[in-house]
Inverse folding.
């Protein structure tokens, strides 16, 4: 792959509404963007577009409870929007489920406690919810290491072995038979580059190689380059002692066979944090929405940008 000319990020049609801290999911041949916020409010907007062909976004049924910093995952063709915050910054314990076939939202299994900034993934027909922030008062709470699983054939949530590292505003992704928790915000308010892998068959966590850069709320997807399964991490925010330092334009790729991250030369058109994304097709990652790093005066720009990168021609090299 090293002899190929690196590709660039290519602009796709933007979201109808700019927003950050949204959830993005792909079901079949369609991509969905759920919720999110701007400085004005938390939004219930749900938009959809085709993964290929006509890439313009259109509105579908709004999620009943507007939410941001929620966990989003797909199991058995259904999109789960889990927890998050509503317009008064109050955390939610509700779960809502969208069926793209019927076009309707229904209530899912309520969480044991209110939780925001967690991450979720579907694997083996089960829904996993990991980490996040559990409030204990108006201005207090805990960055958690807890792991919950829900079987759609049953009811409620079951606790599993906790992550080694409590984290919030991170990403959880399923690759082959494992889950990976990447980056995020630590309990001592630092952005993290660490990555931990969960084996559901053994209910065990282990550390794998750190990302090359720390990332809060990056776009993280699992896909393939050729026949090689990989994880891709794009953009996200760096922070120190709770203060955002800047958002990133970089992309890095994890090869589980080598336990190695490769930082690509290609850069996003603009730095973005609080983003999400998915794959348009195998080997092409798409990043959706986000927000720029706050300026000196505290202002920031929420973006509707959608950009795609063909990883087959990204310059990534595997030995």
């Amino acid at each position: 792959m090293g002899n190929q000319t690196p590709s660039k990020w290519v602009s796709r049609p933007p979201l109808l509404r700019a927003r950050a801290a949204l959830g993005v999911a792909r079901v079949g041949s369609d991509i969905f963007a759920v919720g999110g916020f701007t400085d004005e409010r938390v939004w219930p907007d749900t938009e959809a577009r085709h993964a290929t062909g006509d890439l313009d976004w259109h509105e579908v049924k709004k999620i009943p409870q507007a939410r941001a910093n929620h966990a989003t995952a797909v199991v058995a063709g259904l999109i789960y929007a889990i927890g998050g915050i509503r317009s008064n910054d109050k955390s939610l314990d509700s779960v809502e489920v969208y069926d793209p076939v019927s076009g309707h939202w229904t209530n899912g299994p309520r969480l044991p406690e209110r939780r925001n900034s967690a991450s979720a993934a579907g694997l083996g027909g089960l829904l996993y919810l990991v980490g996040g922030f559990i409030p204990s008062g108006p201005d207090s709470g805990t960055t958690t290491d807890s792991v919950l699983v829900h079987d759609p054939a049953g009811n409620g949530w079951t606790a599993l072995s906790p992550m080694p590292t409590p984290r919030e505003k991170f990403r959880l992704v399923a690759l082959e038979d494992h889950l990976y928790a990447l980056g995020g915000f630590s309990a001592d308010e630092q952005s993290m580059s660490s990555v931990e892998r969960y084996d559901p068959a053994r209910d065990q966590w282990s550390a794998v190689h750190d990302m090359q850069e720390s990332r809060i709320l990056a776009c993280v997807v699992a896909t393939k380059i050729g026949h090689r399964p990989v994880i891709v991490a794009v953009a996200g925010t760096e922070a120190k002692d709770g203060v955002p330092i800047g958002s990133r334009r970089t992309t890095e790729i994890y090869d589980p066979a080598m336990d190695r991250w490769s930082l690509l030369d290609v850069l996003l058109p603009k730095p973005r944090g609080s983003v999400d994304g998915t794959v348009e097709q195998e080997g092409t990652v798409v990043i959706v929405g986000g927000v720029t790093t706050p300026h000196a005066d505290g202002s920031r720009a929420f973006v509707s940008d959608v950009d795609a990168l063909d990883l087959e021609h990204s310059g990534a090299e595997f030995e």
